[in-house]
Specification:
The complex is a heterodimer of chains A (204) and B (259). With 204 residues, chain A is of the alpha/beta class. Helices cover 28% and strands 32% of the residues of chain A. Chain A has one domain (2-201): Rossmann fold. Chain A has seven helices and 13 strands. In chain A, β1, α1 and β2 form a beta-alpha-beta unit. Chain B is built from eleven helices and eleven strands. Chain B has an eight-stranded parallel beta barrel with strand order 1-4-5-6-7-9-10-11, surrounded by six helices. In chain B, α8 (183-192) links the parallel β9 and β10. The mean pLDDT of chain B is 95. The chains are: A alpha/beta (204), B alpha/beta (259). The interface between A and B is large, with 41 and 38 residues.
């Protein structure tokens, strides 16, 4: 199988490819429409602001293409960090802006009434109430987070992992063929690589 | 719960891994940076910071080839710093897999660059290097090689209006001395900023970490000498931090397979 890592000028593509290679998968970093259509799985990484991310996707005609592949054709999809946030209905970084709208929810700035530091930065424990082995194997493990905005999901049943900071935040979501996570599995050593492998191997 | 981070720092002088004392020019050679990154990766450190001090001091671009080799060894987050001046510089570093970049001279010369960078790459990846030097008058100044006299806390208060994600706070006086952190400095800076602070400068033994984490609320610490010159590993320091009631991430693993 081939994994298309979407190239849209938003950061950490090299780290993702390095990890996929270590796990034994073939991947390409690309913005080419044909290559993305031919791939068996699409991975949207990214760091940066929501607005810039959407702009870049629009500018390369990727919004329509990705929506067709992921939403219509149900191609397996993994979104990481900004790539997770962009699937929301709306984002707010720096102002309110429309997202891909694949999973209902709004990405909003992290507020900390307790005065905790923002960004939420570092290793934090994720928990799940889902009994699927895909998720239980990562339950109570530490993953690396780095974000100032968080995904407020509309449908709680789509939330797979949560994380505690000042209150409980969404750490990951799943809807049909879409697996999206706020933390960086590609930066979370064994715990992260293990989770990525489990998700991808369902389709390998 | 969010864990306290222990972060080794690799300082590269354009040729080898080095360790300075008081930011002096008599840096000691301590080995190969890529090899060191490999060891830290195997020890499951929380993060790694790589600073190209040659680029920073000589006003040059960072050695991308070296940075790439370092990142290739790491399956944890890596922060890169040294000679960053343009958005293109940041993009180049993020493209090879950096998670954060460190801005230093640029924030003195053109603080508005902080916001320009955050608008594009997000504030979470913009880290500021704040090097504090305590002078004979007892006041803290911002250490810089631009020959400017800048009062530290004034500067921090001003810079706080800009959009960035983290501060690496280094005590220049304590750098490489291995006799403890400047707790007073940390307590002052904590009051000024609300972003995560990585404290650096002075780590020599586990008791220093106990003191830092019991007297302040910071969640991250960076160190170099203690790893180069003593028997202590990042894990030992995490155990010290844990002993004063702060959360840390400990990875249990068998080095000799059981079967």
């Amino acid at each position: 199988m081939t994994i298309a890592i979407v190239k849209y000028g938003m950061g950490n593509v090299a780290s993702v490819q390095k990890v996929l290679k270590k796990l034994g998968y073939t991947s390409i970093i690309t913005d080419d429409h044909t290559a993305i259509k031919q791939a068996n799985l699409i991975l949207l990484p990214g760091v940066g602001s929501f607005k810039k991310g959407m702009e870049n996707l629009h500018n390369s005609g990727l919004v329509e293409l990705l929506t067709e592949e992921v939403l219509m054709n149900k191609k397996p999809f993994i979104g990481i960090c900004l790539g997770m946030q962009l699937v929301a209905t709306h984002g707010n970084e720096p102002e309110r802006i429309e997202g891909l709208g694949w999973i209902d929810g709004e990405v909003v700035k992290i507020e900390s009434p307790k005065g905790l530091r923002v960004p939420h930065l570092g290793w934090n424990t994720i928990t799940t109430t889902n009994s699927d082995e895909l998720y239980t194997s990562s339950n109570h493990k530490d993953y690396y987070f780095i974000h100032s905005y968080h995904f407020k999901a509309k449908n709680p049943e789509e939330v797979t992992f949560t994380v505690k900071y000042d209150g409980v935040m969404v750490a990951a979501l799943q809807k049909d063929n879409m697996y999206v996570m706020q933390f960086h599995p590609e930066k979370s050593q064994e715990a992260g690589l293990g989770l990525l492998k489990k998700i991808i191997d369902q389709y390998a | 719960m969010l864990k306290c981070r222990v972060i080794p720092v690799l300082t590269f002088n354009g040729f080898a891994l080095v360790k300075t004392k008081g930011f002096g020019s008599n840096a000691r050679m301590v080995g190969n940076a890529v090899q060191a990154a490999k060891v830290y990766n195997s020890r499951n450190v929380d993060e790694l910071v790589f600073l190209d001090i040659y680029a920073s001091d000589k006003n040059k671009k960072m050695n991308l080839q070296m940075a790439r080799l370092i990142i290739n060894e790491c399956y944890m987050p890596v922060t890169l710093g040294g000679g960053i001046k343009t958005l293109k510089d940041i993009e180049d570093l993020l493209a090879i897999g950096a998670d954060k970049v460190v801005l230093k001279n640029k924030i003195i010369e053109a603080p508005e660059f902080i916001n320009e960078a955050s608008d594009v790459y997000g504030n979470q990846c913009i880290t500021l290097a704040i090097d504090a030097v305590k002078k004979e008058d007892g006041q803290y100044y911002l250490y810089n090689r631009l020959d400017r006299e800048i009062l530290l806390f004034e500067f921090l208060t001003k810079i706080n209006d800009y959009n960035f994600g983290e501060i690496i706070l280094t005590s220049v006086n304590n750098d490489g001395m291995m006799d403890g952190f400047d707790i007073e400095l940390v307590q002052q800076v904590e009051k000024i900023t609300n972003v995560p602070i990585v404290v650096s400068g002075g780590a020599g033994e586990p008791s220093h970490f106990k003191e830092l984490f019991s007297k302040t609320n910071i969640e991250a610490v960076a160190a170099a000498s203690i790893f180069h010159f003593t028997r202590y590993t990042p894990r030992d320091l995490k155990l010290a931090i844990q002993s004063v009631g702060r959360p840390v991430r400990l990875i249990e693993r068998d080095y000799i397979p059981k079967n």
